[in-house]
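Here is the promised in-class demo. Please do not try to memorize the tokens; focus on the logic of going from shape to residues.
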């Protein structure tokens, strides 16, 4: 059996128990507290009762879609936001501080379709709509509503609308 390593490496935890009952009890305890396999942490990160908010199904897909679309990818003008994977994301963050008109809406639609086709190929985009602010004071709350569906075997199995902010949110 390989030697287990613990952090920090200079402390030896002593002998590990060879009792299979202890190992089975620990595995059952871990399985009882672990989220289901189709669950994940929601974006944006927010605290829940004991940990970060997590979910599965359409809520998780909405969070993944918003995370991917909200991450700036590498373009001819700007480096990608994630240093370890600069091509991940979309061009939607470059729509910030642009004129909110029909041209921008078509660009956002195309950037969304391209990014989803590359990073979330199981999703099919049904529509993209930009929520235009009612007044000049609401300009920091421009939101893209992305209608999507998951297709399996040619039939849609889930659908929802994700809300992706196109401008940085401010608090306070």
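The designed amino acids, position by position:
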């Amino acid at each position: 059996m390989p030697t287990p390593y613990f952090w920090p490496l200079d402390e030896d935890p002593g002998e590990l128990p060879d009792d299979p009952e202890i190992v089975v009890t620990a595995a059952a305890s871990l399985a009882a507290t672990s989220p289901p396999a189709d669950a994940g942490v929601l974006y944006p990160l927010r605290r829940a009762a004991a940990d970060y908010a997590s979910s599965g199904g359409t809520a998780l897909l909405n969070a993944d879609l918003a995370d991917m679309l909200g991450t700036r990818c590498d373009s001819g003008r700007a480096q990608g936001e994630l240093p370890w994977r600069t091509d991940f994301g979309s061009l939607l963050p470059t729509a910030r501080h642009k004129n909110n008109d029909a041209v921008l809406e078509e660009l956002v639609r195309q950037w969304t379709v391209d990014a989803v086709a590359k990073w979330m190929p199981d999703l099919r985009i049904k529509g993209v709509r930009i929520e235009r602010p009612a007044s000049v004071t609401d300009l920091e709350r421009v939101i893209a509503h992305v209608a999507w569906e998951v297709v399996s075997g040619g039939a849609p199995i889930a659908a929802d609308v994700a809300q992706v902010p196109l401008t940085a949110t401010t608090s306070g």
